[in-house]
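Issue 218. Parser rejects a valid record. Input:
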Amino acid sequence: MKRLPYFFFIVLLSLGWISSVIQTKAQLRLFAPNGGETLISGSSFQIRWGGVNFTDSVTIDYTTDGGINWNLIKSNATGVSYLWNPIPSLIGSKCLVRVSKGGTVGSRLLLLKPKDQTDNKRGGYVEFSPDETRALTSNGNEVHLYDAVTGEELWKATIFSNPDPNFAGTGIAHFALNGTRIIVCIINEPSGDTLHILDASSGTELSDWTIGLNKPWQFPKLFNYTLYAAVSPDGTKIAVSGFDTIRVFDIVTRQRIQVFANANPTGGTIPYIAWTPDGSKIASADAANTNSSVRIIDANSGAFIADYKGNANIISKIRFSNDGKTMAVVSFQANSSAIDIWDVSPVQYKGRVTSLRAFQDVGFSPDDSEFLTTDAQSPPSIGQWWDTKTLAPFPGKVLDNTRDFMGDIDISKDGQRILVGATVGAVIYQPPTLIAGQADTSDNFFTIRAPIADTSIILSIDSITANTNENVSFNVRLQAGKSVNFSGVISLQGKISFNSTLLEPVGITPKGTITQYLNTIDWQFPVQGLAPPIDSVIAVLPFHTGLGNDSVTSLSWSGISSSTIPKVIETQNGFLRLADICKEGGARLIFTSPKTYLTVRPIDKSEQSFSVLFRTNEYGKTRIQLYNCLGIEATTLVNEPLELGEHERQLSMEVLPLGVYFLVMTTPTELFTEMVRAIR
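Output the parser choked on:
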C-alpha cells in the first residue's frame, strides 16, 4: 500500500490554552537573590520569596555553574525568607538560587532492599560500579549486588561459611576489570586468607586463590580488623595488607607481582591501605594507639616516598581527594574519633576535626572543596559535610538518618548520589525529584566570591533585569582591601563593551564606537580622596533598553588602569536581561540573530519524519515534549543538559497517529511552545 505524505502547519500556541491541559507552573516567585548581587563566602544573605495563595514550605538550593549542578541549602523552609548563613566557599559568577514549592516527590533516600533482609549488618563495605548503575555491598561472608536506580537486589553470593564462631569470615569486595568482575578478600579463613573472583553479572564464583600470609591463629578474633584489600583505580590489581607487608596481585593472571616489606612506618600490623587516584602510589597505616602514622610508597617499586606522622588514634580509613592532593585519615580510640587532613605533596599537616560520634568514613565532593563524614552515633547517626579549606562544618548540609550506624561511603562522580552502608541495608542519598513547574529561579546570575584580600582591588558592574524601551542605570562598584596603597590615585579608566542593539548610552554615559553590534565605550571614573578599605558605588551609568537581536547582554571590562601607579585590578562583568520578550512560539520574529528559539523545519512531502530545531543560551536541563490535543504526552525528544548553541532532533512519524500535537520546550527559566498538525 502506498504511503501518503504528511503535511505540517506551524501556528503560535497560546500558553493560556495549554496551561489548561498541561500542568501549570506554581504561583511562586523568588525575590532575592534575583541577579547582580555579590555575596561573600562566610557571610550571610536573606533569601526571600512569595506567591499567590502561597502557604507551602519550600526547598532552597543553589548553583555556581549556571544550573548544571545544584546544591541543597535548606529543605522544608517555611515562611517567606531564610537566612543563608554561612554562604559556602564554592565561588563563581554564574550563581543562581532556586526555590521549589512542595519540596519533593517521594524521599531522597533510596533503600537497597536485600531479599532476605540480612544484608549489611553494622555498615559493611559499599561501592558504586564504574558506570554507577549498580551498588555493591559486602559484610561477613555475603556479597550483594543491587540496581543503583531502583534499589532492587540483583543477586547475592555466599563466599565463605565456617561453624567456628571465632572466624567471622569478614569479606571485602570491590569491582574490578571495568566492572565485569568482583573480587572478594576473605579475612580470618582458617585455611588461610583467600581472594575470590565473581562474575559481576550473575555472582557466580569463577576462581579463588590463597593470599599466602602467615597468621598467629591463636588470636583469631584480634585479626577481624587488621587486614584490608584495595583494588587499583584501573581495576587490574589488588593490594592486600598483612602484618608488616603489602602484597600486590594481578587480577587477570592471579599472580603475585609485588611484595613490599617496608610499607609500615613503624613496623607491625597494617590495618588499612589505599591507592592514590592515579594508581602510582599506595598509602598504608600503622596500628599505633596514638600518634599513628601513614606511609606512602611507590606502587611499582615499593620505594619510600613520605611519612605522615601524628594522626590522632588507631587508623581505620585513608581517603584521597579526587585530584590526589589532599589526604584524610580517619582514626578512633574508645569513644574518641578524629579525622586528620594532610596536603600530600609537599607534606603539610592542615588540621583535625574531632567528634564523640565515632567517625566511620570520609569522602570528597567532585571538586574537592568539601568532604563528607559518617558516624556510628546511636541514635541517630548522620552524614556531615565540611569545608576542606577551613575544616568547619556546614550546619545546613547534613544527611539525615534514622539509623544508629552509618559506615562506608562512596560518592558518585557528579556528587549527586551518595552510597552509604547502614545498620539494616545500605542506602543511596540522591537529589529529590522536583514537582514539575513548582519552582522559581533567580532571573539573572549573581556572584559568590571569597572575602576580599587586604591587597586586592575589585571593579564590578551590577546586573539588572528590565523591559524594553526603559531607562535603566548600572551601578559601578569599587572594593579595595585595607592594605591597598591608594595614595595619589585620582581616577580609574578603561573600556566597557555591550550589545548595541539592547543598550543605548544616554546622559553622561559615553556614546562609544559600534562594530558589528558591539558598542565599546571609553570611561574614566574619579576616585580621588577614597581611602581603603573601600566598598562604594563610584559611578552610575544610564542607558536606554532597546528591542534588539538578543535577550541578554554582558557589560564586559577591558583595558583597566589607574591614573598614577599601575595596579592589578580584578573585574566582575555585569549583565542585562530583558524580561518582556515574547516566549510563545519561540524568540521574537524580528530577532536578527536569535539566541533561544523552537521551531519545526518545513519538510519535503516524501519524508516520513520532521525535524525540531532549537537553540538555547542558558545552562541547565532542557526538555522538549510532544503532547496530543488532550494534554497526554506522546513522547519526549530531549531531557538533558545541553551545550549552548543550535540543536536538531528528528521524530519519526511511523508510530505517530494523525492529529494535532503541541511541542513544549522548557529551559531553567523559559517556556516555548509550537503547534504541529499532521495531515495525510
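Fixed in the parser; the record now loads. The radius of gyration is 30 Å.
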